[in-house]
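ASSEMBLY PREDICTION REQUEST
Request ID: AP-0331
Submitted by: J.K., bench scientist
Number of chains: two
Total residues: 598
Priority: normal
Notes: Please return the full assembly, not individual chains.
Input sequences:
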Amino acid sequence: MNVLIVGSTALDSIKTPKTQKTRLLGGSASHAAFAASFFSPVRMVGVVGEDFPKSSLRLYQKHRIDLQGLQIAPGKTFHWSGEYEVNMNNRRTLATELGVFETFTPRLPPSFQDTPFVLLANIAPALQLHVLDQMRRPRLVVADTMDLWLNIAMPDLLKLLRRVDGLVLNESEARQLAREDNLFRAAKKIRRLGPDFVIIKKGEHGAILSNRRGFFLSPAFPLEKVVDPTGAGDSFAGGMMGFLAGAKGPIEDNLPRAMIYGSIVASFCCEGFGVTATTRATRAGIEKRRRALEALTRF
Amino acid sequence: MNVLIVGSTALDSIKTPKTQKTRLLGGSASHAAFAASFFSPVRMVGVVGEDFPKSSLRLYQKHRIDLQGLQIAPGKTFHWSGEYEVNMNNRRTLATELGVFETFTPRLPPSFQDTPFVLLANIAPALQLHVLDQMRRPRLVVADTMDLWLNIAMPDLLKLLRRVDGLVLNESEARQLAREDNLFRAAKKIRRLGPDFVIIKKGEHGAILSNRRGFFLSPAFPLEKVVDPTGAGDSFAGGMMGFLAGAKGPIEDNLPRAMIYGSIVASFCCEGFGVTATTRATRAGIEKRRRALEALTRF
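STATUS: Completed
Returned structure:
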């Protein structure tokens, strides 16, 4: 089945201890869309400026990402630049130029409005809500978020939580949102705000799922070299949603395996700048890592 | 088969955000010995002072820990006091009174010298080496260590590494010892210093095994409440060694499962002050958590 992905579409400039790259294709929707495209057909909603490279448009198309919902607006594409510290775990934002993103309102083409699987990748919760207002009874809605919205848009976020099936967020965001340090308790507390399931992303330490069945602990694929972790969380969410949209049977049964596939696509994401390594991955390569991860965690 | 455990035997005073407890039975050898005792008979080597409570001696005995190697010396028992921060992940030492530990030289009773499984729990590497000098061809020697020895006793530690089969250490220690930030690469680098296998403990995030077969990722048992994590790492190592000593077949085949059992015993350790929760656990309770952990990680 189809997956609708709404989020940011950006050009990123990234500095790591070893290298610096400018104007890489990025944004939460881009990372998630490429990740999901391995498993299901993707419909993307976002906005770019007139400076957006044609080669990036072609890259989306090569991955059969439906761009009917991608607005090309007068002005500049959203540009984020950030820097990673030595251990690649901490990053700081150097600059954010919103460009056309500042006045972005997601508009769903009529053909997108009945997409069964919806991933609200990281953007302002008000925009995520606006997308839901345009949807007709989707089968599964999952939202991602970030600390910024916890700090400046909490009322919108709380409204959103009552309308989604699942929430994906990282460790520190979960602690902040739940006001609870223990991640297992935090996940349960967040579920009481609305979502049936909560997934806490722990980067290299994997991810935790909490739903009415209990917990599932997803390992991360071991990487001996991390080039650029930007977009790994978006890739995780995208890979997971793509897998769920392509899988048979109840969503609850498929969630653990979907998280594993999300982790695997995220591992590819980390091995190159921007979407370079993700877009070079193959379904066969993903299956190989999935089998390897099974062997690495069997006891 | 028997497990020999050498390390510190202490009285701990521990402050957490919620409570404060004084003169709890602790020390690396104590925690490891109780943990191992669920799976195999344990022989313990250590030193305590004349102030050491009789009730603690009885507690060891209740767990069939052979105390022939426990010296009772004139003076005071090693006393450590520490404080945990809100999230229970960071702790700081408030005071260390070495007492009889200052002049401790481990002496192995003749009956201990042919013990097949040896856990050199955390003490000065010079003392760990001195234990090995008294052993007759043990089947498996595993050492634990801590950052202090990396800072003040590196030459001894490097000597030790050439004489052990396995090394257990935590994340930051592994990074420091290998001078490598990536844990998978760090583990491989440490193996080049001597040990056939290296286990990196990541607390709530589980543990990583590196050996010639590759990696194994061990999950940690999810805990919704951590009372006192002191000794969790020692319990992990002790539980693992106890399981290995009690298991049939090649050690390499048993290592992943041994780590799982180590994690489970460590999870009990965290649920009470000192050894309270560990010593109240049962083999049946351990098996119950092992089955639960299998279900929590199946995909």
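REVIEWER COMMENTS: Chain B touches chain A through 34 residues (CB under 8 Å).
SIGN-OFF: pending second reviewer
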